[in-house]
Amino acid sequence: MQREHIHSQRHCEDYRGSIHTAPATCQAWAHNCICYHLLNTCYLPSRISSISKIFPVLMLYRLWEEGTVASLDDPLERYASTFTINNPLGMASAPEQQSLTDELEKVGPAPRPSSVTLRRMASQLSGLPRRLRSTSLLWRGSTQEALSLLKDDVLVADPGTRCHYSTLAFSLLAHVLAAHTAQGDYQRWILENVLEPLGMEDTGFDLTPLVRARLAAGFYGSGRPAPLYDLGWYRPSGQMYSTPADLAKLAMVLLGGGPPLLRPDAAKALLAPLLACSGAYFANETGTPWEFHAQGGYRVVRKDGDLDGYAATFSLVPPLRLSLVLLLAGPRPPGRDLVAQAYDVLLPAMERALREAEPSPAPPPSARPFAGYFTFANQTFYEVRPGPEGELRLRQFGPRVEALVPPAFRTLALRHLRGRVFQLHVAREFPCELPLGDAWLSLEAQHGQLVNFYPLDRHGLSPGFDVPGLNTYRVLRLQRKPVFKTQ
C-alpha cells in the first residue's frame, strides 16, 4: 500500500451485536461494528461516491411498500410521462412494424418501446447511457432538461439483457420518484426517511463549511490534494459523505438488525441478484443496486465507488450477517482488491467462530423411533443412533462410502426441530467438497437440510425418511444391520 498517497484508511466490520477494535481505535459496542483505522477514527466523514446509489434504491422500495409506486417493474413513463428514448437494439412486434411508415425505419428492424423499468434503472439493467449526452458529473440542469436530452439519445443495451453501468439511471430515478413524494425533494426525503430514523448523523449531501472542516482530505495518486466537487443534478449518484460508523448502522439494518427500513419480503428482494453479467463486466451478477462477487463459497454483496481523491466500498455477506465498510481518502492502492483480501481472512474466521459458538444439536424427546439402519435403493446405507448427549447422529457406511469418504466426514449430527423433522448439522468447517468419483459432495449443501421421518408404525418406529432439499426420497428402514460380501 502506498500510504504516502492515502490520507486515511478506515474500515468497519459489522457482525450481530458486538464491536471489536484494534488498539487505539474507536469503541462503540452498541453499534455492532468492528472498526479499524490507520490515522483517523471511524467517525471521520469521507466522501462515499457511488455508495450514494444505495439511497435512491431504498427510496424506490419504500415508495413501493407505501403504494406510491405500484410495481418495481413499472415503466419509467408511468412516473415521467415525457420520457422517451430510442431503442435500436430491440425488435418490435409484427403489428408495430406494419404501422411504421417512415422509410428510414424500413432499413432495419423497427424499434420497440424502451422497457426501461424502475427495477432495471436501480440494477444497471436499464440500458441507459452512463451519463446524459454532452454532460459531466458537474452538470446543473433540471430533470425536465434531462428528459429532453434523452429524446434524441439511444439505449446502449436492450433493457434487461446486459449489465451496463449507468450513473444517469440512478439520478433520474431519484429525481423522478422525489416528484411523487410529499417532500418533493430527494435529499429531504432521504434525510427524513432514512438518515434520521437510523441515527446517521454524520451522513449527508451538502458540503457546508462545518462538514468541510471535518471531512477527510482527499488526494490523487500523485499526492496532490483533490478538490471537493459538487455534482449538481447527479448528486443522488455520488454526492454523499458519511463515516464508517454511520454506514455500519445502515449495514445492520439491511442485515436484519436495528429499526427496520423495509418489510422482510422487500428487504429480501433488495439483496437478491437479478442477472448474471458477462465476463467483461466487473462483477459476477448485478442487483438493486449491488454488484455481486463470488468469494469463499459466498455471494459478497458490494457497492464500490471512486470519486476524485476518494474511494469507498460497502459490502455485505447476508448468510453470515457480516458487513465490511472501507473508506479511503485517496485512490485504491494497486494490486489485489483490499476488500477481497479482507474477506479471505474474515470468512474462514467467521465460520470457525460460529461453529465453535453453536450449541450442541438438540436431541428429540426419545431417540428410539428414529434409531436404526436405513438404505437408499440398497446403494447407500445409514445408521441413525443417539450420541453422548442424546442427540441423533447419522452415519453413512457401506463399501462404496468407505472407499470414497474419509472417516471424519461420514457422520453428521441431526438437530431436532419439531415432531419428526430434523436438520442436518455439519460440525466442521465449510465450504468443503469431497471428491466422490465423478461427482462432488458439498458439505455446505448438506448443512441445514431438513430430514423428514415418516409417521411411526405400530411398533413405534419410523419406517424411513426423506431429505427433500437434496432430492433424496424413500430412505427406508432395514430390519437389521446389513452384511456386505468381502472383496
TrEMBL record:
Annotated Beta-lactamase-related domain residues: 47-340
InterPro entries referenced in this protein's UniProt entry, alphabetically: Beta-lactam-related, Beta-lactam/transpept-like, Beta-lactamase-like_AB/R
A Pfam family assignment: Beta-lactamase
Annotated region (Disordered), positions in chain: 90-113
Gene3D superfamilies attached to this UniProt entry: DD-peptidase/beta-lactamase superfamily
Family: Belongs to the beta-lactamase family.
Name of the protein described by the UniProt record: Beta-lactamase-like 1 isoform X2
Gene field: LACTBL1
